[in-house]
Amino acid sequence: MKCFYHPGYYMPLPEGHPFPMEKFPGAYEILCEETPSLRFSFVEPASSEQLLRVHRADYLEAIRTDGLTGYDRRRLGLPHRTILLERSARETAGTIAAMWAALDDGVACNLAGGTHHAFADRGLGYCVLNDVVVAIAELRLTQPDLWVMVIDTDAHQGNGTHALLREQANTYTYSIHVGRNYPAVKEPGDCDVPLERYVSGETYLDALQSTLERSMHAVEPDLVFWVSGADPHADDRFGQMQLSTEQMRQRDAYVAHLCQRWEVPLVVTYGGGYNRQAGMTGRLHANTVQTVAGLYIA
Ligand SMILES: [Zn+2]
């Protein structure tokens, strides 16, 4: 199974910043050490041309030049760095590369991405660029008719993805998330499954299993992007869900197995994760990749 990554996904943040940037090298190191069957490729940043299919030029320029207003900076949640646009473009390129690899091989992972709160003209909640929507725009150049489904199991609603894909033909968005949590304003998707705050792992898994396959039947997708999310874990700072590490594995196995059974190419991305335990966010993302690899490589 091909995995796409670059050390440049990491960007130093101030001490105490809640975004665990170390999850990128952390998960990569775990996977290199524990899962030798994976094949890793480094990616170059997505081009301006690719990003401009989705994002506004003035927004990209503001990210590059520290031109965001104070309000826009706060709602993005990341400080200005000269490498911020480049690292986000690299992360986006990982999802594009994983998409082509999944269409060739049936499955592939970007060891990052799933930045589902980003809109065309603004970044929210640590999400600068909407990697999945940029990848879909790339796909449309040659494959306009493929049915594309986004499965979002991050604890937060994929508002940017939902808004950007709403008017696009042959796309379907599914999100299972806490109803009364960030983002305060939800963007309707094709299937939204809002859950109570601090939902138990059992209830989450029941809700997932009773809705996701129904969506698969409705769409019969030709390609799935999965924004997996490490933040449904019980020890997450922001997820407001109560899944154990084992229940996270059950979630991962359910989604991956469903895609495998439907024989639909699967692109795995990370989404969010803000675990209170040091190193745990990277561990959870690595677990997701390992669960997928275990099903597809076995
Ligand atoms: Zn999240």
List the helices and strands and how they pair.
Elements lengths: L1 E4 L17 H12 L4 E4 L5 H5 L4 H9 L4 H7 L7 H22 L1 E4 L20 H10 L7 E5 L6 H7 L5 E8 L12 E5 L3 E2 H19 L3 E5 L13 E2 L2 H17 L4 E4 L10 H18 L1
Parallel strand pairs: 1-2, 1-3, 3-10, 4-5, 4-8, 5-6, 7-9, 8-10
User: Architecture, according to CATH?
Assistant: 3-Layer(aba) Sandwich
N-C termini distance: 11 Å
> So how many helices?
10
- Given as residue ranges, the uncertain stretches (5+ residues, pLDDT < 50) are none
Spatial strand sequence of the major β-sheet: 2-1-3-10-8-4-5-6
General shape: globular
Helix and strand pattern: EHEHHHHEHEHEEEHEEHEH
Top-tier CATH class: Alpha Beta
Q: Which whole number gives the mean pLDDT?
A: 97
List keywords for this structure.
single chain, 298 residues, alpha/beta, Arginase, Chain A, 10 strands, 42% helix, binds zinc ion
